[in-house]
Amino acid sequence: MRRILAGRTPEEWIGAIAMTVVLALLGFQVVARFGFSRSFSWLEEVSRFAFVWAVYFGFVIAAEKDRHIRISLHIEALPRRPRLILFTLADTVWLVFNAVVIWHGYWFTMSMFEFPYISQTTGINLVWVQMIVPLGFLLMSVRIVQVMIRRWQGEEEHVDHRKGD
Amino acid sequence: MNISLLLTVTFVVFLVLGVPVAISIGLAAVLALASANMPMSYLVQTAYTAVDEFTIIAVPMFILAGTLMEKGGLTARLIGFSRAIVGPAPGGLATVTIVACTFFAAISGSGPATTAAIGSIMIPAMVKEGYGKGFGSAISSSAGGIGVVIPPSIPMIIYGITSETSISGLFIAGVVPGLMLSGALFLTSAIISRRRGYRARSAEPRSLRLVGRAAWEAKWALFAPVLILGGIYSGIFTVTEASVVAVFYALFIGIFVYREINVTGYLDSMTYAVRITGTVMLVLVTGRIVGRILSVFQVPQAVSAYLIETVSDPTMLILLILVMLVFIGMWMETLTQIIILTPLLLPVVTNVGLDPIQFGIVFVIACEIGYSTPPLGVNLFVASEIGNTTVEQVSKASIPFLAAEIFVMGLVAFIPELSMWLPRLLGFAT
Amino acid sequence: ADYTIRLSHGDNENNPTHKGAVKFEELAEKYSDGRIDVQIFPNNQLGSEQEVAQALRTGSIEAEVLYTGNLVPLAPSVGVMMLPYAFTSNDEAHAAMDALKDPLNERLPKEAGVRILGYFEKGFRVLTNSKREVKTLDDLQGLKIRVSKNNIAIETFKSWGLDPIPMAWAEVFPALQQGVIDGQENPYTTSISSKFYEVQKYITEIHYLIWSGPIIISERFYQGLPADLQEALDRAGEEAAVYEREVSATETDKAMKELVKLGMVLSGAPTDEEKWQSAAKALWPSFSDDIGGKEWVDKASGIMEKAIKGGSE
Ligand code: NA
Ligand code: NA
After folding, report:
1. pLDDT digits over A87-114, tens only?
2. Do the beta carbons of residue C148 and residue C277 sit within 8 Å?
3. Of C6, C54, C170, which has the smallest distance from its Cβ to B45's Cβ?
4. Are B103 and B226 in contact (CB under 8 A)?
5. CA nearest neighbour of C60 among C32, C41, C76
6. Which of A22, B4, B48, B367 would suit a FRET pair with B274, their CA atoms being 20 to 30 Å apart?
7. What does DSSP say about strands C210-218 and C114-129: parallel, antiparallel, or unpaired?
């Protein structure tokens, strides 16, 4: 039991659980429709909502592992100090972009409380789903800052483990 | 400042700085929104809706199914079977990858999903056998694209709707060109493998008895496509649901038959699938925004209007359109590209004698190629993630395969029979 | 031009929606003496119908033609247009739409930040399926029917004894082809434009709901215009709607003839239509809360009824 719980970040847990919900709901849908000729109108929408959350936590997981795709062969070739400076600069640019999304995402979310968007099959205000946009980018930013620190502390000697043919 | 120039310059500068691809695209979008005087809320909104698409669910599910099949021991047995068939021929596993993608294409309507399903089984296998990581990922990325040329195909559905062309006709028209693409990839990979000496290290010579034994060993793995194909064509489930059924099947066999999957194994596979999906989807999100902005500024329209005005020779025109489709496919997301360009190009190409079905197949092959071209190539991203290698390396290794596919696209564009023979024979076209 | 209107819709260029949009462009530019420039973006190039409707509120995009059902999640009040069997002929529908324009425009700006300029339609939604001719409610039983993701449509089918399937649009064609679902419901013209005749055989005019689609404009944008331009847009919207409805009627006739030629069986209305009507109409009270409250629904149905009677006199 301890082995199962250990070694996973919170975002990995949430992402895995959300995607498991998608899997379970759609599996249930096939069985219900084919086996029992029943269909549940809320299933498609709810599984899509869970999927969006899973994907956003996927963004965070990839950020924590520093696995978002970048073109960096030319930077890897540099000596340690200029390399670290460049990566820091690049990640700062990334944080600026996230800040734009978080700021406008926050106001967009607020406006959805005022002008609700009501899901037709579940009756919920979609703001509860869409707020994952600013939230996800905020969590991603926290992980980016951690990676930046790790890099300078040398724990993350950015050897691209993907390199080597 | 000209909007396409602004977008391109911003994008390239940030890319060179080492900013992630998705974010470089996103920043270009932010600048373009600002210069178009459009509110940033459009960015936020699209960041949600680009992910909120039911059919995309098939992508992580097929990745998951592939991973579980590997963990659960189905893959090892499937590879044993493939190896028995191919024997010691050079590039054998690459051939198996191409054949598997072709077969899987008859189940999947999506390029990235095909790459994910076959790639997550075959790339590690190829690496284990000493094939280059870049090569293994490149072949999976290119062959995965066949998923949209052989029916069913999501891009064909979108093209059929936009162009008011028979979708069944398109599906059937894709069969021959799809098989030609497989053939072209096979020839290319055989030449490369022979030169580099990629081969199964300890393969025994082929024998019917060995193949039979390996097939029996791999029976549960071999039943998977039967279940999925059968389920789709007998109307039990949709393509998206099929991806979920594939996961349950892999889980069932892995847990109860081979007993090689436990809770830890499941969670590991799941987080892996979620992470890859996150990596790929972030690029799709910002790519979608840029696609929309290009539409607002009517950039694709301007480009094709220019083409039509300046070129009068039909052969030249078709060639130019092919170049343009491949070029735009490098930068733009498939479905957006189809929706925007189809109404503009269709009148032009039918004017010089192409059948709408034929052009549809040419267009879908261009999209198929676009999946594997940088900077925005979804198959490329999926394959390099699975192969644990860089996009640059996979891109480089993809060049010969892309050349072969572009050659096939040219053939389909200039020889109508390749796409039209089968639908005419079966009465779907005149 | 002093102002630019980006007008989005989800259909291709051969659709009545697009032709109506083009008419709107022509009229708006004419009535504003060229001070307004309208740019049309067909095929959902700028985003799905719901997405663009939300973008209208923030002013990212200025105008849109969309299916009423896709506006309901943002502007519940407009749901009165979707009450099953509120009207049963095109003339009745037109009268109701025109009479509701002003009352709706008192509510929509507050609910969703948009306003209606005119109301388009593409004809009544009809039921298609691949299994059997549906002539009575009994024939319907056991069919697997896809409906659009709208509460009223879902509940209406439930009242007829089915579990309808709200499937994503992109999956509908392959699902029909492979038999995952047996049928769907959309206007006649959709069976042509989406090639449903390739995979469907029977059509029944169930007549419960018309495909209605308002041309809506961002309230924020509208309020930023001088009064004379506001008037120009209102006029252009109403006249474009009149034109669009004529095109739609012609196209629907054409589609019906075409579908017969393509081998489909057109069965007309069910023989026991009263049964369908009474089952669906019994639901009206249960919808009130979701479409603006009982007071509004009573008021709106009163307006519709009066307009319909006035129209038939
Ligand atoms: Na396919
Ligand atoms: Na590309």
Report:
1. 999 999 999 999 999 999 998 888 888 8
2. no
3. C54
4. no
5. C41
6. B367
7. antiparallel
What residues pack around ion ligand 2 (CB closer than 5 A)?
B 330, 370, 373, 376-377
Cα angle value B54/B60/B62 (rounded, 5°): 105
Q: Tell me which residue of B222, B182, B186 sits closest to B80, measured CA to CA.
A: B222
Asked if B55 lies within 8 A of C175 by C-beta distance, the reply is no
ipTM over 0.95: no
User: Rounded CA gap, B182 and C297, in Å?
Assistant: 60
Decide: helix, strand or coil at residue A131. Answer: coil
How does pLDDT run across A1-18, given as a tens digit for each residue? 556 667 888 899 999 999
CA atoms within 13 A on the CB side of A35: 6
Buried-state track B113-140, b at ≥16 Cβ within 10 A, e below 16:
bbbbbbbbbbbbbbbebebbbbbbbbbb
pLDDT per residue of chain C (313 residues) written in tens, 0 to 9: 899 999 999 888 888 999 999 999 999 999 999 999 999 998 888 888 888 998 898 888 999 999 999 999 899 999 999 999 998 899 999 999 999 999 999 999 999 999 999 999 999 999 999 999 999 999 999 999 999 888 888 899 999 999 888 887 777 887 888 788 999 999 999 898 888 998 899 999 998 999 999 999 999 999 999 999 999 999 999 999 999 999 999 999 999 999 999 999 999 999 999 999 999 999 999 998 888 889 999 999 999 989 888 754 4
- Nearest chain A residue to B131 by CA distance is A165
Contact of A120 with chain C, judged by CB distance below 8 Å, is answered with yes
Instruction: Summarize chain A as % helix, strand, coil (round to 5).
Output: 70, 0, 25
| Pair of tokens at residue A159 | 């050897």
Rounded to a whole number of angstroms, the CA Rg of chain B reads: 22
Closest residue of chain A to B16, computed from CA coordinates: A71
Note whether A115 contacts C: Cβ–Cβ < 8 A.
yes
CA distance to B42, B300, B336, C54, per residue, from B46 (Å):
6, 20, 13, 11
pLDDT (mean) for B289-314: 78
Interface test with A, best of B23, B276, B289 (most A CBs within 10 A): B23
Distance CA C211, CA C209 (A): 7
User: How far is residue B398's CA from residue B384's CA, in Å, rounded to a whole number?
Assistant: 11
Question: Which pair of tokens denotes residue B240?
Answer: 């998206």
Q: What is the pTM of this model?
A: 0.81
| Nearest CA-CA partner of C150 in A128, A41, A46 | A41
A35–chain B nearest CA distance, Å = 10
Which tokens go with A104? Answer: 């406008």
A-chain CB neighbours of B124 within 8 Å are none
pLDDT tens track for B122-139: 898 888 888 888 999 999
Name the β-bridge partners of C38.
C5
First to last CA, chain B: 48
| Residue (of B246, B268, B329) closest to B57 by Cα position | B246
Cβ of C166 within 8 Å of Cβ of A121? The answer is yes
Centre of ligand 2 from the C-alpha of residue B416, in Å = 26
What gap in Å lies between CA B260 and CA A97, rounded to an integer? 43
